[in-house]
Write a structure and sequence with these properties.
This protein has 24 helices and three strands. By secondary structure, it is mainly alpha-helical. It has a domain of 235 residues. Helix 10 packs parallel to helix 12 and helix 20 runs parallel beside helix 22. The chain is elongated and about 95 Å long. The protein starts with a helix and ends in a 36-residue tail after the last helix.
């Protein structure tokens, strides 16, 4: 029997005991279970059968067909219902828990490959819902085989409603209980977060996106109905508001769980299948369109002095956008395309545009909808730093990695014994890369499609080119400006000390053990120095005159210009530093000539000339 096959399959003593009991463990039995289950499902999906009559080539209609009675039509409906009942029994029989898992796997594969339209055509709407309920609430919670779990999740992903923000009337299967069932959500969430098999986790993550989409669609459709319906009774209005609040609260929790999985799965270090699943889940969920309400025009809005917090749903939407930006720079073309189309749809852009063009347009939309919020300001600071330094003050001091600590309460330097940390450690690690020649042609980057400075320059442009206080609040820009000045000072001292060490080694050994043109001519050190200068340039243009004066005092006290000159910056890094220095000095209200102010620095070092004379800090956006 099938149950005996499941219980006693195996080799050695298990096979002998099974043979004594009269149970077959032959490989042919496995093949029989697989083929019989698949064949029964394929036959059940055949709505015409082998007796289907070919249509008349000339389109003539016989008298018998034209005079068909109502009884014949009723008989045809009864026959169709009988066929659909037989099809449903065939599906449920092939998916029985007592059958070998090969039978369930083959049946689920047949249902998944057939698609939703064929299954609905073979069963009808009511029986299709019964089959979907059986798979979601009976089969999936108890299934232990990875192949069956994955195919059941993939089938449910096809059967779950989509198009969260569609304008036309909702389909009948949009608000099915299975799509909004808390039990189904818990089962799928457990598989997506705790299952040991990676392919099962990926399939569950994609299905979670569809389930979140169904919840968001219900929340937004109810909100639209409430806005359009105003002449209702007070008690019914209160009851509807209570139900809407429950739905919104449940949707917020589900969105938060999915966004956490997508954010973790979007990292470049994750496997390809995981990143693709994160992209598909993000596209299925439509979270990217859950923007906060649009603000009034700039002329009618007072500039805020404190950042406004986001609602939990909008905060999750912003995190989802950060994952989308990362996935749009993925090395896999399929991953980029899926996310780019979803971002273009949410940002009302061109779905056929190049991925980088979609990224730029999407970033501008995100800036316009999330500006002056605490979460967006933290995102801007994170994009500018790139994780190379922590923008938050710790105990009022900033360490430079060489024993020098700059106090945040004054502009003087204090020294104490400390370990290397902050910006200096990643910068020293990057400089060490320039000392190693691994091969004639250096290895290709792990993700050659990603441009590390693109998002940083997009964030810098949003801060610098918007009117003061439009993107980030002025207190935020002033605080980050002083931090950026100190981080630039740390970078200058670190590079100066490293250059002095190399010069000593060169004089001793007779050769220069460094990168041609200096360490900042190498991509790794340049990225860090450029980010520090880019942050200084952006925040200087958004801060007040008093903050720029304090930042300039930090640069003078720390002798940043002299340190960078001694460090022998490369041409591009030197141009980035001069642009940042000019932004700090040029906006200072003095009696100097407006044309000379941008070229006057903290020292008498001449301004950049030559190919970098027209250097743009956001050079990737030109």
């Amino acid at each position: 029997s099938a149950l005996g096959f499941v219980t006693f399959w195996g080799g050695g003593d298990a096979a002998r005991r099974a043979a004594d009991r009269g149970v077959s463990v032959a490989p042919g039995d496995v093949e029989w279970f697989k083929r019989s289950a698949r064949l029964s499902c394929v036959l059940a999906l055949d709505t015409e059968g082998f007796h289907g009559r070919l249509p008349d080539a000339y389109g003539f209609v016989s008298d018998d067909e034209s005079d068909a009675s109502d009884e014949d039509e009723e008989k045809s409906i009864r026959d169709r219902d009988v066929d659909r009942d037989c099809a449903l029994r065939a599906f449920l029989s092939a998916l029985g828990p007592s059958l070998p898992y090969e039978s369930r796997a083959s049946a689920l594969r047949a249902l998944r490959d057939a698609g939703k339209e064929r299954v609905v055509a073979a069963l009808g709407t009511e029986r299709f819902r019964r089959l979907k309920t059986f798979v979601a609430k009976t089969l999936l919670p108890t299934e232990k085989r990875h192949a069956c779990q994955r195919r059941a999740l993939e089938a449910l992903e096809q059967w779950t409603a989509s198009d969260v923000f569609r304008d036309e009337d909702a389909d009948t299967d949009v608000f099915e209980d299975d799509d909004l069932s808390p039990e189904t959500w818990r089962v799928v969430l457990r598989l997506a977060s705790a299952e040991t098999n990676e392919r099962v986790r990926c399939a569950a993550t994609v299905l979670l996106g569809k389930l979140v989409g169904a919840r968001l669609r219900r929340v937004f459709l109810r909100r639209d109905v409430d806005e359009e319906t105003t002449d209702v009774r007070a008690n019914s209005h209160a009851a509807r508001d209570s139900a809407a609040d429950v739905d919104a609260s449940s949707a917020e929790r589900c969105v938060s769980s999915l966004v956490a999985l997508v954010k973790a799965g979007s990292a470049p270090a994750r496997p390809l299948d995981v990143r693709r699943a994160a992209a598909r889940a993000l596209a299925n969920s439509e979270i990217l369109a859950a923007f906060p309400a649009a603000e009034a025009s700039d002329s009618e809005t007072l500039l805020p002095t404190n950042a406004q917090p986001l609602s939990p749903l909008c905060a999750s939407c912003l995190v989802a956008w950060t994952a989308a930006f990362e996935l749009m720079e993925d090395e896999d073309e399929q991953t980029r395309d899926v996310v780019a189309v979803a971002c273009a749809s949410a940002a009302r852009g061109d779905p056929n545009a190049h991925t980088e063009a979609t990224l730029r347009v999407s970033f501008d939309v995100v800036v316009s909808r999330f500006r002056n919020t605490a979460q967006f300001q933290n995102l801007v600071a994170s994009l500018l730093s790139g994780g190379f330094w922590d923008d938050e003050e710790k105990d009022g001091v900033f360490e430079d990695g060489h024993g020098s600590v700059t106090s945040s309460s004054s502009h003087t330097s204090k020294t104490r014994t400390t370990h290397s940390s902050g910006l200096s450690k990643p910068l020293l690690d990057a400089v060490d890369e320039t000392k190693i020649v691994r091969r004639l042609f250096d290895r290709e980057a792990d993700n050659h499609h990603a441009e590390g400075l693109l998002l940083a320059q997009l964030a810098a442009r949003a801060v610098a080119e918007a009117p003061c206080g439009q993107t980030v609040t002025r207190p935020f820009a002033e605080k980050r400006l002083l931090n950026a000045a100190r981080f630039v000072a740390v970078a200058a001292r670190t590079l100066e000390a490293e250059t002095e060490t190399r010069l000593k080694d060169s004089a001793k050994d007779g050769f220069f053990p460094g990168w041609a043109g200096g360490a900042t001519n190498h991509g790794a050190p340049f990225a860090i120095v450029n980010r520090a200068c880019l942050a200084l340039w952006a925040y200087a243009r958004a801060a007040s005159d008093e903050a720029r004066t304090e930042a300039r005092a930090v640069l003078v006290t720390e002798r940043v210009a002299e340190a960078f000159e001694a460090a022998r910056l490369g041409p591009a890094a030197n141009a980035a530093w001069r642009a940042a220095e000019a932004a700090v000095v040029a906006a200072k209200k003095t009696s100097e000539n407006a044309e000379d102010a941008p070229r006057r620095a903290t020292t008498e070092t001449p301004f950049v000339v030559g190919a970098f004379e027209t250097y743009d800090p956001c050079f990737l956006l030109r």
